[in-house]
Each structure stands twice: as C-alpha cells, then as structure tokens.
Amino acid sequence: MAEANQSVVSEFIFQGLCTSKELQIFLLLPFSILYLMTVVGNIFVVILIIIDHHLHSPMYFLLANLSFIDFCLSSVTTPKLTTDLLKENKTVSFEGCMSQILCVHFFGGGEMVLLVTMAYDRYVAICRPRHYSSIMDRQKCICLVLISWVIGFVHGMSQLILILELPFCGPRIIDSFFCDIPLVMKLACMNTDTLGIVINADSGVLATSCFILLLISYTYILLTIQLKSKDSTSKALSTCTSHIIVVVLFFGPCIFIYLWPVNITWVDKFLAVFYTVITPLLNPAIYTLRNKDIRNAIKKLKIHI
Predict the structure, then answer these.
(1) Most CB within 10 Å of its CB: which of 93, 94, 167, 177?
(2) Among candidate residues 38, 100, 113, the one with its CA nearest the CA of residue 274
C-alpha cells in the first residue's frame, strides 16, 4: 500500500501559516530568531548540566533529556516552516511528510512519558526523601529515560503505520505548515471516520494516561509540601511550580489538537505553532529563570569564561 501511495501522490503542498506574501516576509525574522533561541537554549541547558558536577543529579539528568527532546521536536517542523516563508510553492515529498508524522509523534510521545518520569522523581524527592538516593539511582534514571524513548518510538510508529495504510490519489493540499495527522487523513481517497477514531484513541490513551498520572503526582506532592514547614519546602515548591507550568504548556495544545479539536483553521495553526515552536523555547527559559541551581551554574560558567 505504501508503494502504491508513493506512485500516485509523490508530494504534498502546504498552504503555510497565511496567504499574504508581505506577512510571510515579516514572519521570517521572528521565526528564525525563535528557532535559533530554541536550539541555543536547549543545547546550552544540556551542556551546562553535563559540565557542572553540581548538576549531576537525577532531576537534572531528566531535565537534560527534556531539553534534548525539545530541540529535536522543534527541529522537525520549524526549519521547514521558516524556509517555506520564502517559497511560492511549499511542497514536501511523500517520504518527508511521513517522516514528519513519525518524528512529531515520536518526540511528542517521548516527552509526555518523560514529564511523568520527572513528576515521579519529584514525588520521591519530596515525599520519600530518605530513600531518594536508593530509589533514583543512576541505573534507574537511565532505565526510565530509555522507557520514555521506547514508548515514544512505538507511539510514533503506530501512528505512521495506520497512515501508510491510506490510499492517497487525489487532493494533496494541506492547510498547515507541517504534516499533521488529522489534515493528512482528509486527503485520503476513502472514508477515514473509523481510522480517525483508532488514531485518536491511540494518541488519547497515551496523552490521557500521562496527564492523569501527572495530575495525581503533583496533587500528592503539593499536599505533602503544604504539610511541611515553609523554610524546608520553598525550593521544592519552586521546582514543582516550574514542572507544572511546563506540563500545562505542553498538554494544553495537545488536548485541543488531538483530543478536543476546535476545527477552526487559524486556531489550529496557532496551537500547532505553540506546540512545535513556542513550547520547546519556553521550557529551558522556565527552568533557567526559576531554578536557583541552574542560575548559579550559569554564574560560575561566566566567571570561568
């Protein structure tokens, strides 16, 4: 079926963010700067955590992996979005479109599971501090990160396999700036209602399960913090607040794109931009500005430089 698809439809056409050439030229610089800041910010966080021995703890190991995933997620869509602003014909090959679908769901699914892992780390640190070092040892951390990558890959592959089964033989215009599953499904030469339910269920189970686990974890953590003295929990509260902000920013757009679609074109495009461009930039900024250890590591790095 995949070979038949490629022989009939060899490429898709993006309509992009807007139709105005003037607005596209205007958006070129902001999106270029946003992507540059995303790359520099996330890679900087990864390097900082690697070189500073004070940051060699499970929480920062997980944070480094989150920054790397954000860098990868942004790189799937933003470079092409930026270069397409200069093009009249915004095309993507069939293989390129399928690769975008795989990578977006691979990195997105992996990030969902990683956020749950980070919540578990904070639960152990705050609710079971005496056993933290034995529970969250190096081997356990590496295992949890590998699980997040594996689940993300399985999720991405399951979405891709379902899409590859569709026959594409006619329309090839996608009203977006990247290959998003709901929009690609509309171009299939068959009724996709049943398949749409299956795909939404696939994404929905992963997203809903992770979101519920996060809600339970942070509710329990915040209740535990409230019972402790203010002096000993200020740092924990600050860290958890940062995590909660990241969770809301990440899951908010996902819910409206895949689980509770609005079906308004400009809203869908805004949410897609927020999910793939803005959120990967905000994550390192939130952790950098709100985390005292990260700020101290940056100060020490400035002194050595």
Answers:
(1) 177
(2) 38
The domain that holds 289 is classified in CATH as 1.20.1070.10
User: What is the three-state SS of 169-186?
Assistant: CCCCEECCCCCCHHHHHC
Instruction: Tell me if 304 is assigned to some domain.
Output: no
Domain hosting residue 264, numbered range: 2-299
Q: Which two tokens stand for residue 250?
A: 């990440």
- For 225-238, how does the pLDDT look when each residue is reduced to its tens digit (9 = 90+)? 877 756 556 666 77
Task: List C-alpha distances in Å: 165 to 13, 91, 98, 188.
Answer: 20, 22, 12, 10
The residue ranges of the chain whose pLDDT is under 70 are 1-7, 229-236, 257-264, 305
284 part of a folded domain: yes
pLDDT tens digit string along 164-208? 888 888 788 898 889 988 889 889 888 888 888 888 788 878 888
Of 90, 94, 89, 68, whose CA–CA distance to 81 is shortest? 90
Q: What total number of domains does the chain contain?
A: 1
